[in-house]
Automatic annotation (TrEMBL):
SUPFAM superfamilies: NAD(P)-binding Rossmann-fold domains (SSF51735). PANTHER family: NAD(P)-BINDING ROSSMANN-FOLD SUPERFAMILY PROTEIN, RETINOL DEHYDROGENASE. Keywords: Oxidoreductase. Belongs to the short-chain dehydrogenases/reductases (SDR) family. The keyword Chaperone does not apply. The keyword Oxidoreductase applies. This is Uncharacterized protein. InterPro entries: NAD(P)-bd_dom_sf, SDR_fam. GO terms for molecular function: oxidoreductase activity. It comes from Didymodactylos carnosus.
Length: 320
């Protein structure tokens, strides 16, 4: 793939609907803006209505066209850390009788202090993986009914370092040790586990859909991007140590946008792949490239175990 920029996002014809989780901030917000600009109807799936409405106003102002009212941009409340909220979101989406062509599993938390979701699961695994597992499964028929359609899973290169999923509930949900650097290591490892789960889910779902499927499910690492994701780290770490290596949020949305909209995905029949922005070339460009994920992602047994665990925890009985 040569250099890629926002100009390469195709303008849509007819009605095309996307759901983007965690789209009031960061990468999700820019992804929303650029899709809406190209004619997509985007449903912003966010936990905080006030923040989502502020983001909608900001996106409208940034696009700044005269017929601004015709921009198709909506909000439906979604808290990924609550199965009840995920189910309510899907019900509300269905009440609108809209087709669905694109689901972007974007929302996430990184390295917060230890906490549990509403359903008693460790916060990072619960929010980043389980909430999205439930959401994608509940929306799968919508995506199948509107092919060609796509799912983009925001993983991270943090998934590469993680050795595997902790399948024992008590150990997975155990509070972090309370001593300085050890706490941070445990928080980081748990984030890595959640992002590994994202990529294992992506690969497993793609395989279950099959290579003939016109629902294209692929994962990405967006780069190291200056966003609020780092809010739980000491500010000095991001501003002094990481800042020179961080990409802008615009740059950070491009790998998602490539996998979400580029014709290559369909013409080359790409399923279950892991994309990264391979070269840090100056804005407004990136160079998306498919690379190898963590070998654990390729382990069918491990993926099936995770699928069964996720089914049990989310209470899903029938999945693909
Ligand atoms: N930034 C990076 O360097 C980087 C690198 C690799 C991967 N990623 C991945 O990229 C994705 C987007 O991250 P970002 O950098 O754009 O971070 P961000 O600016 O912090 O945005 C994260 C979004 O997720 C939302 N969110 C958090 N918990 C949620 C919940 N329980 N329910 C619904 N939404 C929730 C946040 O909502 P609130 O505003 O309400 O908190 C926010 O809108 C994440 O999956 C992250 O793991 C980012």
């Amino acid at each position: 793939m040569p250099q890629y920029s926002f100009n390469d996002i195709p303008r849509v014809e007819g009605v095309k609907v996307a759901i983007i989780t965690g789209s009031n901030e960061g990468i999700g917000r820019i992804t929303t803006r650029e899709l809406v600009r190209k004619g997509w109807h985007v449903i912003m799936a966010c936990r905080n209505e006030e923040k989502a409405q502020a983001a909608i106003q900001a996106i409208r102002a940034q696009i700044g066209v005269v017929d601004n009212d015709n921009l198709k941009l909506d909000f439906i409340q979604l808290d990924l850390a609550s199965y009840e909220s995920v189910r309510n979101f899907v019900d509300q989406f269905h009440q609108r009788h809209l087709p669905l062509h694109l689901l972007i599993n974007n929302g996430g938390v990184m390295m917060p202090p230890f906490g549990l979701t509403k359903d008693g699961e460790e916060l990072q695994f619960g929010t980043n993986h389980l909430g999205h597992f439930l959401l994608a499964n509940l929306l799968l028929d919508d995506l199948k009914q509107n092919v060609p359609s796509r799912i983009v899973v925001l993983s991270s290169r943090a998934h590469l370092r993680h050795p595997g999923i902790e399948f024992v509930d008590e150990r997975r949900n155990q509070p972090y040790p309370d001593t300085g650097i050890v706490t941070y290591r445990a928080r980081a490892a748990t984030y890595g586990q959640s992002k590994l789960a994202n990529m294992m889910f992506c690969k497993e779902l793609a395989e279950r859909l099959g290579s003939e499927s016109k629902v294209y499910c692929n994962g990405i690492h967006p780069g190291v991007i200056k966003t609020e994701l780092f809010r739980h780290l000491h500010p000095g770490i991001t501003t002094r140590i990481m800042s020179p290596f961080m990409r802008t949020v615009e740059n950070g949305s491009m790998t998602t946008l490539y996998v979400a909209t580029h014709p290559d995905i369909e013409t080359q029949n790409i399923h279950g792949a892991y994309f990264v922005p391979s070269k840090h070339i100056p804005a407004p460009y990136i160079r998306p490239a498919e690379v190898a994920p963590n070998p654990v992602v390729l382990d069918k047994n491990a993926r099936e175990r995770l699928w069964e665990l996720s089914k049990r925890l989310t209470g899903l009985t029938n999945t693909i």
